[in-house]
Backbone:
């Protein structure tokens, strides 16, 4: 495992137009299901505070549901609307800020991955661009154009609330096969209105969301956008097949006002396209000109979606890529679930003290 000297690039400050951070580490958004009645409580606030106390540069919260009856699945998944939940989030922000940290909520709608009858609103039907599940099965009717426009406004309202209650940025969850990604992906978006068409036209829903959020938060507030090629049901799925397509996919999102792209991959070291070592984040930085966050099995020898556990792994490859400016920031997921002090330990060179990820980390707010 790496020593203190070689992890230096991870602990250089990050400066950008709208967001400055003390180092390059980001806590990856991770759904926990510890918010009773969909309201984050003091234990959730303390959980995030522990990461802030231990030098995490930017915390991105677990996905939190925008104001729509079918935005989340489950009674303990936090939402981002209504007085109780927003007060809970305001306490989370307060704790993190008191500990000197920065935090962004991840704004989320699960779309067609919701099962009929799921809590908290058992009667709410799953919604999606064409009423298709990720496997392409017809579940219900496509959203009407007006319903899509109303969803755009729900994201905007969440963005306004995030700024009002003191968050430092927002992250829009456009990855992994959830609602926004269902618009991106040809398998789930067969629409013929302005929200459908080729892979560039299918960015329209996300573009309108980013524009509407920007309208609410103003020019100076950072908007992070997370996207992925892979989907929860298909790790080989592709939105784009080559750098040219990636550029055409990113361009409308850049013009809409994205400040930072969070490029979700399951293994950060894998090249995205043939003929170059660059990963998805590396290509996105090169083609969009925007700062990027990379992610995927940092410090671990097993990949996300295998929840059984993973040992620790060297950070050398990661640090090399960071040092070469392939990406700007590094999100850490499972390592930080198990070990709130992961970043601080790495900074201090205490790599033998790092706790490996095991599935118990999912049962408790360490
Ligand atoms: C328990 C758990 C919950 C997750 N929930 C979310 C989520 O709410 N939103 C999201 O974008 N990604 C989510 N992810 C994916 C992580 O953000 C991250 O991309 C993934 O775990 C890979 O990073 P890692 O290998 O460092 O764990 C989750 C991952 C885990 C392990």
Residues:
């Amino acid at each position: 495992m790496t020593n203190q000297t070689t992890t230096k690039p991870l602990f250089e400050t990050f400066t950008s137009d709208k967001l400055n951070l003390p180092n390059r580490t980001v806590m990856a958004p991770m759904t926990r299901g510890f918010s009773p009645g969909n309201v984050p409580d003091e234990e959730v606030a303390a959980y995030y505070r522990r990461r802030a106390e231990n030098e995490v540069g930017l915390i991105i919260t677990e996905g939190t549901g925008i104001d729509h009856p079918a935005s989340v699945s489950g009674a303990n998944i936090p939402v981002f609307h209504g007085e109780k939940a927003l007060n809970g989030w305001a306490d989370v922000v307060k704790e993190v800020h008191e500990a000197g940290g920065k935090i962004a909520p991840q704004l989320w709608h699960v779309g067609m991955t919701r099962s009929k009858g799921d809590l908290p609103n058992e009667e709410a039907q799953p919604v999606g661009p064409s009423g298709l599940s990720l496997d392409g099965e017809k579940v219900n009717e496509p959203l009407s154009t007006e319903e899509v426009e109303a969803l755009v406004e729900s994201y905007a309202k969440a963005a306004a609330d995030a700024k009002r209650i003191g968050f430092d940025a927002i992250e829009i969850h456009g990855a992994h096969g959830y609602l926004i990604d269902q618009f991106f992906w040809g398998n789930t978006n067969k629409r013929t209105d302005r929200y459908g068409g080729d892979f560039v036209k299918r960015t329209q829903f996300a573009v309108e969301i980013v524009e509407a959020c920007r309208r609410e938060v103003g020019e100076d507030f950072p908007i992070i956008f997370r996207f992925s090629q892979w989907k929860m049901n298909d790790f080989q799925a592709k939105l784009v097949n080559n750098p040219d397509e990636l550029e055409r996919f990113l361009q409308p999102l850049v013009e809409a006002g994205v400040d930072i792209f969070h490029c979700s991959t399951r293994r950060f070291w894998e090249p995205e396209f043939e003929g170059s070592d660059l990963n998805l984040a590396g290509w996105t930085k090169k083609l969009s000109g925007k700062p990027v966050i990379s992610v995927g099995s940092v410090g671990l020898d097993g990949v996300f979606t295998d929840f059984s556990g993973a040992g620790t792994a060297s950070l050398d490859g990661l640090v090399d890529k960071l040092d070469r400016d392939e990406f700007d920031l590094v999100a850490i997921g499972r390592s930080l679930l198990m070990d709130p002090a992961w970043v601080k330990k790495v900074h201090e060179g205490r790599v033998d003290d790092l706790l490996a990820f095991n599935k118990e980390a999912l049962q408790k707010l360490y």
The chain has a mean pLDDT of 95. The two ends are 23 Å apart (CA to CA).
